[in-house]
Specification:
Layout lengths: L1 E4 L6 E4 L8 E3 L5 E7 L2 E6 L10
Antiparallel strand pairs: 1-2, 3-4, 4-5
The chain binds zinc ion.
């Protein structure tokens, strides 16, 4: 597990080491976070409010 920082509350977020960019993680503070890669390092950002997945 990788320990990332929640961009909303600053708390610790546990993410699988093999998490893929685009993967969604819900933090204990209630924020929906999206995994993305920055300089080969996994990071987190606030996921867009999509609600339903309209993709195929
Ligand atoms: Zn949080």
């Amino acid at each position: 597990m990788a320990q990332l920082k929640c961009p909303i509350c600053g708390g610790q977020v546990s993410v699988e080491d093999d998490a893929l960019p685009g993967e969604l993680v819900e933090h204990e503070c209630g924020a929906q976070l999206e995994v993305f890669k920055k300089n080969e390092t996994l990071s987190l950002r606030l996921a867009e409010e999509v609600g339903e997945d309209w993709g195929e």
